[in-house]
Amino acid sequence: MLLAHGRHEEAGVYKDGPPVPRIDPERCREFTMSGREVDYFMPVVCTDRGQHKRMLLTSARRELDGTHGMNHALQWFAPPMGKDAEPNSLTSKHSYIFRCPKCPRTPQVKADVWWQLVDKAVLARLDAIDISLLP
Ligand SMILES: [Zn+2]
Question: Cα–Cα distance between 30 and 91 in angstroms, integer?
Answer without folding.
Answer: 30
